[in-house]
Amino acid sequence: MKAVCATDLSAASEAAIESETCLRCLSRIGVEKLHLVTVVPSNVHTGIPGLNFEERRQSALSRYQSVLESAGFEVEAHAVRGTPYRRINGVAEAVDADLIIVGSRGESPLENRAIGSTARNLARTAVAPLLVNRVEEATDDPEVVREHLFQHTLYATDFSSNAEQAFETFSYLHPAVQDATLVHVQTPKDPDPEDDDPEERLAALADRLREWDIDTQTDVRYGDPADEILAAEADHEPTMVLLGSRGHGRLRRLLLGSVSEEIVAHADGNVLLVPPERPRQPR
């Protein structure tokens, strides 16, 4: 597997890149090559005398690359200019990445750019599954919030085709998953449970996970999907929330605004957001 790892060269990005546990988790799911990407926003000028911007950026990238290579990954570094989320997606498409990894907090002293806003933009547009690695807020020396990225997974489903695609990521995640909680939120617009029982559908998914020796439980809730998924996260305390980026809704922005983007913005831990399948480039 190939992954794009986006960094704004902030302390938060450094915490994610230098977490040995996080790196082992990526290795366990089959990531072998990392494309390390930093984006200089178009409105930032790098040639201001006395800042040594380019030297500092290259020094930071070289240090991160050494850390990742020492952890056993093949690494290629990319320093590009433009709108961060667009350029990150562009690199991901160019290298046919299987995963995009981005930190959820941090303001770069070099670029004065919040990586958290980039994560939210990627939630709307990511061309590959997006792993948002949550990092501590309001501290000068942050650490990752959940070191084990996938160990305790909360999977949220509305039983749509994109939710099923998100479920299929367990096919490569399972070596790093110890247990899972499967959540469905019933809303007034959903079919009558007597005709389409969510408990039975979740139980069928749970049986599939148990074939991989994943200890699994189910949780059916009622109310607003975003609110209830966040409440389930608070109750079950997973290391990661897994969900698709689209569901029954046909209007992309409407769905993202009500569910996926809200989870990326407000979840306490890590989030893996899986977009609809798109045509793959020949390898």
UniProtKB/TrEMBL annotation:
Residues 2-132, 150-275 form the UspA domain. InterPro entries: Rossmann-like_a/b/a_fold, Universal_stress_UspA, UspA. It holds the Pfam family Usp. It comes from the Archaea. CDD domains: USP-like. PANTHER family: STRESS RESPONSE PROTEIN NHAX, UNIVERSAL STRESS PROTEIN UP12. Belongs to the universal stress protein A family. This is UspA domain protein. It comes from Natronomonas pharaonis (strain ATCC 35678 / DSM 2160 / CIP 103997 / JCM 8858 / NBRC 14720 / NCIMB 2260 / Gabara).
